[in-house]
Each structure stands twice: as structure tokens, then as C-alpha cells.
Amino acid sequence: MSLPRYELQRSYEISVAIRRKSIPIGEVPVGAVIVNADGNVIATAHNLVESELDATSHAECLVLRKAMRRLGQKYLEKCDLWVTLEPCAMCAGAISNARIRRLYYAVEDKKEVL
After folding, report:
1. How many other CB atoms are found less than 10 A from the CB of residue 88?
2. pLDDT tier at 4, thresholds 50, 70, 90
3. Is there a domain that residue 112 lies in?
4. Average per-residue pLDDT in the chain?
5. Which of 18, 28, 66, 86 could form a disulfide with 109 if both were Cys (CB 3.0 to 4.6 A apart)?
6. How many C-alpha atoms does 47 have within 13 Å on its Cβ side?
7. Helix axis angle, 59-71 relative to 89-97, nearest 10°?
8. Chain centroid, CA 81 distance in Å
9. pTM score, whole prediction
């Protein structure tokens, strides 16, 4: 089942709103939201790398952990992930391992990798 256009837009807007929370606390402004097949929000998160002094506290990893805890399962096969910036390699691996159904991102990350 594909989400209606208005649900897609709403999910994107939520990820942007979550992203804004990271700016005042000096974080890289990335927000993420996980929705289920019906478009209901399961979890939201923004970057906390600087606040937690933890290089793995990217929005994507944090939102995956929250969704898994909330649903009581390690795989999120019926969920979609929205993120404001294209995931890095670490987050892409976590997303794949979590078996997210679909990934949407707003902006391509043009950062050069080694």
C-alpha cells in the first residue's frame, strides 16, 4: 500500500520540523521520522552527536532505536523513514539492517568521502 500524497507531504514536514530542534543546540540540522504503513508517526529524532559526544547519535540511528523500542521488534519492514539529508554510510547500513520498507530523503549529501 502506498501512502496518499498528503501523507507523504505531512511526513516530510514533520522531518523538517524535527530538524529545526537541532539548530539551537549546535547540532548538524538533520531530522528523521518513521511512519507505519498507515502513515502514523512511530518515532522522531534529530542529531545529538555534539550534545551526547557520541559519533553514532545521528538522527537516523536514534529514530531507528526509538521505533524498535516502541514497536518491540528489531525489524521495521512495514515502516518508512523520512530524513532531511541523505544518510551517511553508517546510517545506510543501520537502515538496511532494520529492514526499513522505504527511505525518503530531502537533500542529497554532496560531501566527498574517502
Report:
1. 16
2. low
3. no
4. 89
5. 86
6. 23
7. 20
8. 5
9. 0.86
